[in-house]
Amino acid sequence: MPISFLPFLPDDDDATYLLESLFAESCHVDIAVGYLKNGGLDLIVEPLRRFLEHHTLRMLVSADPSQTDGEAVRTMLDMSPDCVRFFDVELPDRGIFHPKTFCFHTTTGVRVLLGSANLTEWAWKRNIEFNCLVTESPETRQFVRDLLSHFGRLWDLSSTISREALDWFIEKQKGVKIMPTFSEGDMVRSKSCPELGVGKVLEVEEVGGQKRATVKFPTKPEFLLFSDLVVDMAPMQWLKSYVERHAWPATEPFDLRTRARFLEVVNKKTGALTRTRVDVLPHQIVVAHRVVTSEPMRWLIADDVGLGKTIEAGLIITALHTKKKAERVLIVVPAGLTKQWQEELREKFGIKDFIVFRASHLKDYGTEPGEAWKRLPRVIASMDTLKQDGIRETLRDIQWDLVLFDEAHKLSAYREEEGGDVERVKRYRLAEVLSHQAQARANARSVANPNVGAMLFLTATPHQGKESKFFYLLNLIRPDVFKDEAAFEQDKRRFLSEMVIRNRKREVTDANEIALFKGLKTQQLPVVLTKAEQDFLSNLYDYLRQGYRVAASGKDTERAVGFVMTTFQKLASSSKAAIGHALQRRLEALTSKRKPTATRQRKLSPDELDKRTEDESIADHEDLVRRQAFFKDEVQQLRQVLASLRKFKSESKFNAFIKELRLCLKGNTKAKVLIFTEYRETQKFLVKELSERFGAEKVVQIHGGMPLDEPIALSASAKCRETKMQSALAFNKGDAQFLVSTEAGGEGINLQEQCHILFNYDLPWNPMRLYQRIGRLYRYGQTEDVQVRQFQQEGTIRITEANGQTRQVPILDQQISKVLGDCITRIVDSLAAINPNESPENIREFLLGELVEKFSFEKAYTESVKAGDPNKAGEMVEKELRAFIDTKQKFDELFGGLGGFRFGDYQSIRPEATMKDVQSFVDLFLKSRGGSMTLTDKGCYRVSVPSEVCSIQRKVRARYEPVTFSREVYQKEPNAHFLGFGHELLERIVEFCQDPKFEGVAAGRTVKSKEWKGVEGLQFNWVIPLRHDSTVVEEDFKTVFVDSAGKVRPDIGNALRLLPSSGKLSSTPRFLTVEFIDSAHETASYEADKAVKVLLKSYRKRHKATPVPTPEVFSVAAVRFI
Question: The whole model's pTM is what?
Answer without folding.
Answer: 0.64
